[in-house]
Design goal:
The chain has a single domain, classed as Winged helix-like DNA-binding domain superfamily/Winged helix DNA-binding domain (Arc Repressor Mutant, subunit A, Orthogonal Bundle). It is mostly helical. It has six helices and two strands; from the N terminus they run αααααββα. A hairpin with a 7-residue loop joins β1 and β2. It is 72% helix and 7% strand. A two-stranded antiparallel ribbon has the order 1-2. The relative contact order is 0.14. The chain starts with a helix and ends with a helix.
Amino acid sequence: MTKAHEDALSPGDYEALANLRYALRRFTEFSTAEVMKLGLTPQHHQALLAIKGLPVEKEMTIGMLADRLLIAPHSATELVNRLADAGYVERITSGSDGRRQVVRLMEKAEHILTRLSGAHLHEIREMAPELMYALRILQDRHRLEQIAWMA
């Protein structure tokens, strides 16, 4: 970090960053607890959600899943294997390229995602004002710096 960046931080910036991190941490803890109640790990949930959240015209591959989860392809392969063994996903040959395998959700995963996503959306909506406030402070500070720099 350069000296200019250090000088640009105000006590309000630190407060907003701390509040944002706290809110994100609370959401992560909420999510972990909800997911574990249903017998999944957070990574399982993230994988299922990544598959479900892909636009319908696209097919989820192991490589794409690895990218979405920020994990190595071999780790994504192991994760898909565990999800398939548990009956959450299936691997099938791609309709557009017979050399590729794609991952699709099974009914069991669809059901559990409906339950989890409803709870998660409710929690996010409850936290939204707090998150938006922290982000607004950080964004407004950045805009003020840009205006001052242009003057």
